[in-house]
Amino acid sequence: MLKPGLMMDRPLLISGLLEHGAAQHATQEVVSRETHGPTVRLSIAQIARRARQLANALRGLGLQPGDAVASIAWNNHRHLEAYYAVSGSGMVMHTCNPRLHPEQLVYILNHAEDRVVLFDSTFAPLVQAIAAKCPRVLAWVCLSEREHLPDTPSPAAATPLAYEDLIAGQPDTFDWPEFDEKTGAVLCYTSGTTGHPKGVLYSHRSIVLNATTACLPDVLGLSTRESVLPVVPMFHINAWCIPYAAMVAGARIVLPGPRLDGASLYELMEAEKVTISAGVPTIWMGLLQHVEQGGLRFSTMHRTCVGGSAMPRALIEKFNEAYGVEVRHGWGMTETTAIATLSNLSAADWERPADERHAIVARQGKVVSGIEIKVVDEQGATLPRDGVSQGELMVRGQWIVERYHKADRTALVDGWFPTGDIATIAPDGVMTIRDRTKDVIKSGGEWISSIDLENAAAGHPAVAQAAVIGIKHPKWDERPLLLLVRKPGAALEKPEILAFLAERVAKWWVPEDVVFLDALPVGGTGKVQKNELRKRYGGVFSGG
Ligand code: ADP
Questions:
Q1: Catalytic annotation, pick one of 113, 447, 487, 527
Q2: How many angstroms separate the most distant Cα atoms in the chain?
Q3: Alpha helices in 173-232 (DSSP H)
Q4: Which helix (H) or strand (E) holds 106?
Q5: pTM for the whole structure
Q6: Fewer CB in 10 Å around end: N or C, the chain?
Q7: Does the beta carbon of 307 sit less than 6 angstroms from any atom of ligand 1?
């Protein structure tokens, strides 16, 4: 007969992370670049005091456990305080992506039943535009002092309070309630490229487990010795849980505010001696361009964690070879809380030639403890882990969604979450994303991986960015179309890039045509919007 374990039943709660940070790492710094410019420094102890003040203030506004509080905000210390104050007091922290279409924002604010909205002054015009359509919201709070309140005329519905006024005079102690660790803590909606955005409601348990795992040496590797700069936004998948993980590890956290261009990031990284950063590939392209053009070096940064879309191998190589920065390449999605798989180099891998190392990092890697993956064919049968058989990637684990917010049925198939990504898994467990089901190009009954083609094109020295979409073709059903952005001042024409690709991919993969653009359309989370490109360029191939 099974025997019950005889250990204490203490719930995994987000408030516990904050109080751990405040007690054990009280003097560790949180550095935050303000929306209006200056960089401020607070200790974790101060952050905790201010979070408790906010918890008292929200209670004072009449909010109850279970209520939802939205944020439309950059990565900054007030947003961090809200992360802890809202979830810690049993409410749901709903982080909104400000780059959603305003109608979608209205939809999610109403769907989540948000009572208070915390916003950065940058988004005042957006708040103005949507406030009247969100009747349940009782307070709009600008994350600033009174003197930095936006001076835009507000509709009566949205006359904003200043955050500093709201918390001023509130006690800096708060009795964090204890409740079931499975309680909803944070709500994040998917980007909703098709249909309405869908809400993923993370539990306290899932976030604490994920945050703890994220600190492991082979995941983000956070510790008291590291200064971590999450470029990945706090409005998208909790900045990969770094705001929680930093508290677990006692790492110094550097929050970049609104300026995420290469020059601003580089300046902050150097000034604040950042050692680890995390973000999507497009951010790193901007950063590298700035560093290359200025002949600069990274004096302290030794590791960057990249995910959200495939990191081109050429970029991995540059970070490594030219700048001595280790790249860790992760895969995850809103539905998986944060990173679910990560490429990493073992001691033996470090002995391999550089080329082989970069090839390992270019794959999406192994699952972190707590997660399982498999690939299945169209009938749902599990495919072999042979590195070749490709099918839909299925995932399960302790921080994977079971059903969407307010959905009446599960999102799972036989207990696994279908990701919509197409992948292979090698015998050693290393997973490679080949494509998204909606991006893969079906040519003459075979599949062409848009990611592999993009990676190959990005390896050309004149290419700044590359995207590949399928265009309809009368004979082959679909054929690849390559869309390219040249590096500033670089000369590159169609015959040259096609010849370059012909040496690197199968002949029938070579794109049907090439279009040169000034920029690729990038969505709210820094990813290239292929649906936009398909709308503009995905028509029937007309020859040429
Ligand atoms: P969306 O991109 O729709 O806004 P998410 O931010 O949740 O939604 O993105 C999840 C998707 O991003 C994954 O399903 C996958 O297609 C893609 N993705 C994430 N990380 C990687 C990676 N390292 N390589 C390739 N694709 C990735």
A1: 447
A2: 73
A3: 204-214
A4: helix 102-111
A5: 0.91
A6: N
A7: yes
pLDDT of residue 192: 62
Residue 388's φ and ψ, nearest 5 degrees, are: -120, -45
The CA 169 to ligand 1 mean position distance, Å, reads 43
Q: CA–CA distance from 198 to each of 70, 162, 207, 334, 527 (Å)?
A: 15, 30, 19, 10, 18
- pLDDT per position as a tens digit, 69-93: 999 999 999 999 999 999 999 999 9
Residue 191, ligand 1, Cβ within 6 A: yes
Phi, psi of 390 (to 5 degrees): -115, 145
- Compute the Cα dihedral for 507, 511, 513, 519 and give only its sign: negative
Residues 6 or more apart in contact with residue 247 via CB below 8 angstroms: 17, 18, 20, 21, 25, 44, 211
pLDDT of residue 233: 96
Whether the CB-CB separation of 60 and 182 falls below 8 Å is answered with no
Query: Ligand 1 pocket, 341 CB below 6 A?
Result: no
d(CA 511, CA 514) in angstroms, rounded, equals 7
CB 253 within 8 A of CB 230: yes
DSSP annotation string for 281-312? HHHHHHHHHHHHHHT---SS--EEEE-SSPPP
pLDDT at 544: 42
- 231: alpha, beta or left, given left = phi > 0 and alpha = psi -120 to 50? alpha
- How many CB atoms within 10 Å of residue 111? 18
Atom of ligand 1 nearest to the CA of 527: 2
Amino acid (one-letter) located at 92? V
> Which residue stretches of the chain have pLDDT < 70?
152-158, 192-194, 540-544
- Establish whether residue 343 lines the binding site of ligand 1, counting it when its CB lies within 6 angstroms of any ligand atom: no
